[in-house]
Amino acid sequence: MDNKSYQDHFFKKAKSQGYRSRSAFKLIELNKKFKFLKNRINLLDLGSSPGGWCQVAKEKVKNGKIIGLDKKAVDKIKGINFLKGDFLDEKIRSSILSYFDSRIDVILSDMAADTTGNKSLDCIRTNQLCLQVLEFSKKVLGKNGAVISKLFMGEDFEEIKLNAKKNFKKINFFKPISSRGESRETYIHCLGLYTL
Ligand SMILES: C[S@@+](CC[C@H](N)C(=O)[O-])C[C@H]1O[C@@H](n2cnc3c(N)ncnc32)[C@H](O)[C@@H]1O
After folding, report:
1. Contact yes or no for 20/14 (Cβ under 8 A)
2. What is the C-alpha to C-alpha distance for residues 45 and 88, in angstroms, rounded to an integer?
3. How many independent structural domains does the chain possess?
4. How much distance in Å is there from the Cα of 86 to the middle of ligand 1?
5. Which end of the chain has fewer CB within 10 Å, C or N?
6. Cα–Cα distance between 57 and 68 in angstroms, integer?
7. Gap from CA of 109 to ligand 1 centroid (Å)
């Protein structure tokens, strides 16, 4: 199957299963591999619009707290608190922290910077968001907490890998089959901060 056919296949599959995005299957695959969605956890989903990852998270996380954040508004999902704003905004970060009364167990990020037409620049901007997620996680993630974040294979890939290795006991990269249509996209899974 070529890239376009992959995207079409997962788009149709998402529609038939009631998911808002084909990205939902990426989270299903990531969770199959790393098993981070559990009952009673505090979970933050960054870049949550239109809500596919939150739908998957809600199916697996019973009696936990889930926040979805995006610059765009997201249609309601029962049991999920959506915030509209920019992850880079300090005020938004404070709102996130005040919602969770303890540390966060899982931080997901599928954030992608707006495309400019310049692939190399787009890659750098999305990878900067990934670095920001890793930095933020150092302050808020609980013991044995996990971060799963999108990033692109590009010139600053090694910088992110080094940063993650320095701070987490275990790191892995995984490209879901459902991500195959997006050639440079991959995901990093980081587990257990050293500093705790
Ligand atoms: C690929 S989509 C996420 C799809 C989502 N995981 C789903 O399953 O429906 C990427 C999202 O990241 C959001 N985004 C990008 N930069 C952001 C930022 N700085 N703060 C919040 N959201 C951001 C975009 O608005 C976009 O909706």
Report:
1. yes
2. 14
3. 1
4. 10
5. N
6. 10
7. 8
Checking phi first, is residue 175 left (phi over 0); if not, alpha (psi -120 to 50) or beta? beta
Residues spanned by the domain of 134: 3-193
Q: What is the CATH number of the domain that holds 55?
A: 3.40.50.150
Q: Strand 80-84 vs strand 65-70: parallel, antiparallel, or unpaired?
A: parallel
To test the pocket of ligand 1, the residue of 27, 96, 110 to mutate (highest count of ligand atoms within 8 Å of its CB) is 110
Taking the whole predicted model, whether its pTM rises above 0.90 is answered as yes
pLDDT at 183: 77
Q: Which residues are catalytic?
A: 150
Q: Which residues pair with 186 in a beta bridge?
A: 151
Measured CA to CA in angstroms, residue 167 lies from 72, 102, 104, 154 at distances of 31, 21, 16, 21
For ligand 1, the distance from its centroid to the CA atom of residue 196, given in whole angstroms, is 29
Percent of the chain with pLDDT over 90: 83
146 lines ligand 1 (CB under 6 A): no
